[in-house]
Design goal:
Elements lengths: L7 H5 L12 E4 L4 E5 L4 E6 L7 E5 L4 E4 L5 H14 L4 E5 L8 H10 L2 E5 L11 E3 L2 E4 L6 E6 L6 E6 L4 E5 L14 H15 L5 E4 L7 H23 L4 H4 L3 H11 L6 H15 L8 H7 L1 E5 L3 E8 L2 E6 L4 E6 L4 E4 L6 E5 L9 E6 L2 E7 L2
Parallel strand pairs: 5-6, 6-7, 7-8, 12-13
Antiparallel strand pairs: 1-2, 2-3, 3-4, 4-5, 9-10, 10-11, 11-12, 14-15, 14-21, 15-16, 16-17, 17-18, 18-19, 19-20, 20-21
Length: 379
């Protein structure tokens, strides 16, 4: 396996400053995208603040593949200009690290290029018009280097780790956030732990980890991110258990010290901190209840709401999930046999109405974004 070597000569050419000495060979830069050559087949295009995410460009003899891409028009134009300074080959494939609905224009941009979009299968239930889907793992022999895709659930249920084994580079999407508050509220600490364990198996001391935004980092930085996330959750748990209100937690010195490990000298607003606390409570500290497997089977199916359209409930790995057409897959955490909390939701819940002598179908009440929605089962 070819490794990215950090010799003194190589380091003398490095221009993208990153944590703990990890850096990449710079090709060109301006105030938008910076192009860094990793090797003859792989380039990293780093987006500047507000311009776009980090993008990988993998080249074969006949075509190119890109990972991620900008949502804004200015970013797209600049990205394509930079790519065309590297290769004139057509972009035939685009890998999306998540199917976040706010990035719908990004995937449509790929369609406009004529690129086949590759995404995890849960992204198909959002706005991502993925043409190649995978469930847990996929090997792509589409360019000069075999690319390994691994499904994780941290920031979303369709997160993807994108591994370039020969180049020893891993794109981790929104798994890791430099100088920003953490966002592990779909997979929770458990999902973040599993993802970091996967990175441990895929990495060595020379591996370059590329987040969606910000500079590349070594694996040690991601491990520290996990440790800091656990300590943040523990701190909220301690304060929450002492019946401290959110208003009191966000001004607590121990809590602010835990937050500073993510944000440095920049302290987020009280509103952002309050939302962080509430989402941690919603994700990690909600009281759970064990529901019999046959009850979960009973609840699984398609429901229809007059105003919200179809809502599908899916049982996976002894857990219940919900999604709307064009929406995210969300985990339902049981509070009792009928009432479920929406993981990561701020006070959102779902409650089943079981059949009665006058009712043939199961119904549900869904409280979402401050409104109650009724639906009935259609299959």
């Amino acid at each position: 396996m070819n490794k990215l070597l950090f010799t003194p000569l190589f380091l003398a050419l490095l221009v993208i400053p990153v944590q703990d000495g990890v850096a990449l060979d710079r090709a060109t830069t301006d105030n938008s995208y910076t192009v860094s050559k990793i090797n003859e087949q792989l380039y990293l295009l780093s987006g500047s603040l507000g311009h776009g995410p980090n993008v990988a460009l993998s080249i074969s003899e006949s075509h190119a593949l890109i990972v991620d891409g900008p949502r804004r028009e200015a970013g797209r134009l600049d990205l394509m200009q930079k790519i065309r300074t590297i290769t004139k080959l057509p972009i035939e494939y685009a890998v999306i690290p998540d199917g976040d609905y706010v990035l719908r224009d990004r995937s449509l941009f790929f369609d406009h290029l004529g690129a086949k979009v590759i995404a995890q299968e849960n992204a198909a239930f959002g706005f991502t018009p993925s043409q190649i889907r995978f469930k847990n793992q996929l090997s792509l022999g589409l360019t000069s280097e075999t690319i390994e895709l691994h499904h994780i659930s941290v920031n979303a249920h369709d997160d993807v780790i994108i591994h370039f084994p020969e180049s020893n580079v891993i794109f981790v999407g929104n798994l890791y956030h430099a100088n920003s508050l953490p966002a592990f509220f779909v997979g929770g600490i458990e999902g973040l732990q599993s993802a970091v364990e996967l990175l441990d198996r895929l990495s060595d001391e020379h591996t370059v980890i590329v987040p969606r935004f910000g500079p590349a980092v070594p694996l040690a930085a991601v491990r520290q991110y996990l440790t800091d996330s656990k300590e943040l959750v523990d701190q909220v748990h301690i304060l929450h258990s002492s019946v401290a209100t959110t208003d009191k937690i966000v001004v607590n010195s121990s809590f602010l010290s835990a937050v500073a490990r993510f944000t440095g000298m920049s302290q987020p607003s009280a509103q952002r901190l309050s939302r962080l606390v509430e989402r941690i409570v919603s994700t990690e500290l909600i009281r759970t209840h064990s529901v019999a497997d046959e009850i979960l089977d009973l609840y699984s199916g398609m429901y229809r709401s007059e105003h919200e359209g179809f809502i599908e409930l899916v049982k996976q790995n002894e857990k219940l999930f919900a999604r709307q057409l064009g929406g995210f897959l969300v985990e339902l955490i049981p509070v009792d046999d009928r009432r479920f909390h929406i993981r990561g939701g701020l006070g959102d819940w779902l409650e089943f109405n079981l059949p009665s002598p006058t009712t043939e179908a199961i119904g549900l009440e869904l409280f979402l974004y401050g409104q109650t929605v009724s639906a009935h089962r259609v299959n």
